[in-house]
Specification:
homodimer, about 850 residues, alpha/beta, eight-stranded parallel barrel, 35 helices, 33 strands
Chain lengths: ~850, ~850
Amino acid sequence: MKKYVYSFSEGSKEMKSLLGGKGANLAEMTKIGMPVPYGFTITTEACNKYYEDGKTIDPAIIEEINVKLAQLEEISGKTFGGGENPLLVSVRSGAVFSMPGMMDTILNLGLNDVTVVRLAELTENERFAYDSYRRFIQMFGDVVMEISKSKFDKIFDGQKEKKGVQFDVELTAEDLKEIIVEYKALVKEEMGEEFPQDPKIQLMEAVKAVFRSWNNDRAILYRDLNGIAHDLGTAVNVQSMVFGNMGSNSGTGVAFSRDPASGENVLYGEFLVNAQGEDVVAGIRTPQPIAEMAEAFPEVYKQFAEIADNLEKHYTDMQDMEFTVEQGKLFMLQTRIAKRTAPSAVKVAVDMVNEGLIDKKTAISRVEPAQIDQLLHPTFDADAVKNAEKIAEGLPASPGAATGKIYFNAAEAVEAAANGEKTILVRQETSPEDLAGMVAAEGILTQRGGMTSHAAVVARGMGKCCVAGCSQISVDEETKTVTVAGKKYGEGEYISIDGTTGSVYSGEVKTIIPEFSEEFKQLMAWADEIRTLKIRTNADNPRDAKQAVEFGAEGIGLCRTEHMFFEDERIPAIREMILSETTEEREKALAKLLPFQKSDFKGIYQVMGERPVTIRLLDPPLHEFLPQTEEEMKIVSDNTGTPMEKLQALAEELHEFNPMLGHRGCRLAVTYPEIAKMQTRAIIEAAIEVSEEKGITIKPEIMIPLVSEVKELADVKKTVLGVVAEIEEEKGVKIPCSVGTMIEIPRAAVTADQIAEEAEFFSFGTNDLTQMTFGFSRDDTGKIIKEYVGKGILEKDPFQTLDQTGVGFLVKTAAALGKQTRPDIHLGICGEHGGDPDSIAFCHKVGLDYVSCSPFRVPIARLAAARAAIEE
Amino acid sequence: MKKYVYSFSEGSKEMKSLLGGKGANLAEMTKIGMPVPYGFTITTEACNKYYEDGKTIDPAIIEEINVKLAQLEEISGKTFGGGENPLLVSVRSGAVFSMPGMMDTILNLGLNDVTVVRLAELTENERFAYDSYRRFIQMFGDVVMEISKSKFDKIFDGQKEKKGVQFDVELTAEDLKEIIVEYKALVKEEMGEEFPQDPKIQLMEAVKAVFRSWNNDRAILYRDLNGIAHDLGTAVNVQSMVFGNMGSNSGTGVAFSRDPASGENVLYGEFLVNAQGEDVVAGIRTPQPIAEMAEAFPEVYKQFAEIADNLEKHYTDMQDMEFTVEQGKLFMLQTRIAKRTAPSAVKVAVDMVNEGLIDKKTAISRVEPAQIDQLLHPTFDADAVKNAEKIAEGLPASPGAATGKIYFNAAEAVEAAANGEKTILVRQETSPEDLAGMVAAEGILTQRGGMTSHAAVVARGMGKCCVAGCSQISVDEETKTVTVAGKKYGEGEYISIDGTTGSVYSGEVKTIIPEFSEEFKQLMAWADEIRTLKIRTNADNPRDAKQAVEFGAEGIGLCRTEHMFFEDERIPAIREMILSETTEEREKALAKLLPFQKSDFKGIYQVMGERPVTIRLLDPPLHEFLPQTEEEMKIVSDNTGTPMEKLQALAEELHEFNPMLGHRGCRLAVTYPEIAKMQTRAIIEAAIEVSEEKGITIKPEIMIPLVSEVKELADVKKTVLGVVAEIEEEKGVKIPCSVGTMIEIPRAAVTADQIAEEAEFFSFGTNDLTQMTFGFSRDDTGKIIKEYVGKGILEKDPFQTLDQTGVGFLVKTAAALGKQTRPDIHLGICGEHGGDPDSIAFCHKVGLDYVSCSPFRVPIARLAAARAAIEE
């Protein structure tokens, strides 16, 4: 027959799924001889059976519980419901995954009109005994009988009023006895029967109540929010009560085996003399730091410190413990793996390796990659932010904290920054023309746009703090005011934003600039030893490239060539190029751009040296560069001599209904080969010059975007290699460049075997691939996706974490097909997913060679890649 | 050793790839005893070897040719280059696939200064002999020696001038002899050597010239355009010359064994007494109808008629023959399968089955499905159109011919049609609001928009003639004029358009309404017997449904529910629905729409009876229905009481950057379930009512569009089935409806196993699937695709013929995955590809159950499906 109830001595920490987290750890502590009040655990399977059996406990399980109870009586030398030494127990839920505060607990079970008297005698503390009894009735009435808590409170408060006292502790034992009489009358009235005196009935009802609490509304919501399965069920722990409130030689506390904030190797926690756990929680008295316990209970403290140390060694991880001292005797009530901050996680992991407790791989698996993001960005000073006035909340679009003066346009932000001011760029939404302002500002705040809006994407790329889509603010760029809840803020006023949380504060808030600890550097070095996936970065300029290299990037996986086009001195030439009517005109405009592009690439090569650099040919639809205003159009007209009406007509012709699926990517290079030619020339000539200057060999990787058909790639490749041959001829040197493609269109993925005939490398453009695989426009479906995630239709936003089922299937298929044709094909990913830990693990699994992500995600990617290698 | 040269007696019609089409058929005719001038064929492999050997003929092949030549001399009793009876030959190219006029031919080879004299004696016609000789020198000089033709012409014309004659035939033998002297001098001057007198040298040079002509520019272009492989090579036929110009008992002709225009079973062709083939081509004299040959040469005619009959029986197909009569003796020079018009193809195929010549399957495989399109639409009277003034050419957007008075807006076109006028709706471009006008008009002419523009797609759906994107016209809807090449046409003036060719004519041109011949009906009946694929139609209204049923549709595969929304009385309610701020407002607006939708569906069910009808829930982005003008907005404001500014803001919020990938399809039903509820109610209530009225059982198929994830489908299905259950409860009847989905998003295709858990049927929406698989917006990439097809990057427009490599892979994958989960899942296709013969063959191959296409494509689809079944 299946066993549904385990004594603590029968379990172990490995039995978490059966005994729940708490039960398994209580069993483990019992097993290794720690002082644990004895008890037993009713399994999660019993909970599931309770539901299967129509919310009844199987008689066989009741029998098992009774057997365990008898053992408990025997071991404790106490009697349940009476006798010389009455047995009192706690009944606590304990699920497989921690669900703090979501389910129910009952303490002091076993008290009745008889045992309360004996308890008073034994403890020589009548007040304590009756207070325990009235608490038990109240808790049982609430949890098991579902009598409204307020009815108990009314009686209790009435008594206090009657006695003219202010605090609970002022009530005497006699007062409490009167309350108990009234409580019992309330139960009788509500339930139509007496409060149960039989502790076995009390116990079974309590167990059922805990089972029921698995499916209360807040528990279901919590599981939904935390992705915990609903069919796991909870275990129930029945444990002898110990009392920390039996006088000045008793107490209770919680402690961490190390500092969960800093990671320092010292006991960290709180302790309260003559109190039970609830009192700590209730906040009636202020606990003392754990260190002071050494003075109050030197022996017990020593014992506890030893236990903590042993538990840490036993579990080989930092512990979060609860304990009680009953009349000088220490009891361990709980231990579990401690939650910790990012700095603590890093320090503890590295220290434990140095202490010989764990190995490097374990250390790496102890630090969540997403966590270390906070180590890379400024944060608000904890005290300063407590006192700051929060005025709005937007989307946490790019992490970090920033404080500065409000500026409403890029030019003024740049100017203010040049004058040494710290600025926050505040816009309705940003466009590529705001780039310089974004670079200059400390942070960006926008009224519109989602997590993948221009502001958000660019800010993340720069590692700059950004709060986007803050609909509670109203930005008026004309009058230079931003209105929040009726209050106006003007240019030059201070504002502070937290891109990690989305919060917006008025005024200046002190920020703290992160510094990399030695432990952090050590951990990253270990990650680099272990990982097999290379980490590259997406960078379009020397500044980002430098930052990424400092963060450990091993190359550039995606250098977009279009951002460069937006700079002030270039955009007129771009516009001339776009609004050309003939190839000749276009070539003339392109000739003006060549020196700019060449110097861009030289700057990047100078930073990257011999590290690989993948440069993508022009990708976006040309209309993105079109003049926005009449004035800008006029400049083009003056430069080219093309009349305004003609330009208007040309611009109109470029309009597209669905630009995402329009004239962009390699389609530009097929229809206007002269653009690809200019870019190739810039790439190659820059490589030759920097190679010569630095005495190194630069091997540019030229990437052709948006390919859907191998012949398209072949066409553009021919154009590119034609120019390369031309330059080789002109300069008399050989350039070791390679040509590859993005796999970002579903058709490219499923015909990757053909495409690999022409492509020397694939880079998965999972942003576009996700758009087309799902039929989701990033610019339009933010709200829909949010609703889908809310409804559980999608597990996660597929633009943040790669959808392994659909998009991932195409990536896997393409990787396999590509290798089939060209076994040494080089495979990488350069979508936003390249910086997402789950997606990185997937990339490792399907055999990509590298991931490429924004500079500030590089350390996260290094760690995630190492973890993926370890998990394999 | 490999054999490179075959006597006609050694070959057969099966050896086409080796001997070329002409050579194989000459051999075949020889084999079955037809009077063919004897000769031999140098194989295509010899041609390829010629190129492999650096454009030289292998000595072994020369030796083979010489052996065959000796045989030819022996059989013909003639001597090459001399003797009593000199042997003259023709040297003709003959590729595997016919490439008319693309390669070179040399006649009269074997003539030299000696044989020309003997030829004159033998034919007793000196002029003939010398004319032949000068023609030979000229042809040889041009083709083999590549001497400019104009130089020969200059000599010839000079002689005519000198002699003061106007026509060639006026030149005497002596004149021609003088020309020959000058021709030979020209050759000497150009080539530095004498014109070759040795006929063997003449022959080898001629063979090489024919080989070379395989790779001349026009041949290469022709092969590119017709998809013929470049490595096939051409064969060379060397054949004894016969002369149709040896007097009045000689002649030449071409004839078809049946009428290639009507299919009638009579000899059809032309004949010219005392002439060679070239004369017919040159058009100097007008040939007589073949029937008149019966009078001129009764015996020969009888013999030819017998041969034609025998050839037809032998080849079991209509023949296209060339022949020559030399001094009363008939020689067959060529036979091949005859090209024919659609009516002829149908009649010949059916007649031949009735004659016992071929079976039904063969008959079906003889008619190209695309061809029969012309049998379904009006055409211009051939004589009338010859005299019409063509004023412009646009895209052939929807086939057929139409003539009528110009109207510039839908309302006026409707009114005019109500008054019995025939109208052509002329617009810059059409929008859904022009629908009524399109229905009323005979045809539609638009200035803008491509093959997949609104006008084109809707017109094809209706089977209505349409010329779209006619950029040579300028439509001014305000002033109601259309300007073509400076000339203005106003409202009420006649215009005629041909949607099959894209031509636009001024004035009225007589049209011919097609009638289905008995043969056509017979052929379609046979197709229905053979095909296994069901044919459904895309129809949104009773009119189209009725048309489709008449054309043989077996159900509706796609009933779009959005077109119905554009009608005048409905659109205000739609707009209220879209611009609602709350669910309640939206439900109120939807309640107004319910009776309309219900009556739509009733009308369709009444036509379709128990045939299956698949109805798709609302698909397009809502902003498509938005008010276009202030006035329209005002109506909504008045109806709803929502202020104009608020409406403007709501409308703006609906704006999307890429609506194709935005808030549409089932995403609407997830976010606004009330829309799906209203539609479901209309579908089900209509089904109940019509079922009761007609005493039948209607089983509606409800189709949920744009699904990318199974949970999305599950969500909407729940909404739909909830309403169904509600109605079942209300009405106390069970409705046998099914719920399925479109597979039109790549992710749906690759997760089809999961989707089939919820879907009872899949309908492949290959329009959208093509858009997303290629990343091509139909509305934007028309020009790019055209350029891609032009450059050979794409073989065909993937929106017209399904891309089997990419999109087809996804269809195949989804079909297989769907069946894996649900073996009886019903599979169909409802994109435009459902009416494309190549795509239909693909659908058959991958095991779909049906294709659905616009009503006017139904007969084509029936035939294509039968052919696919036969080919299998």
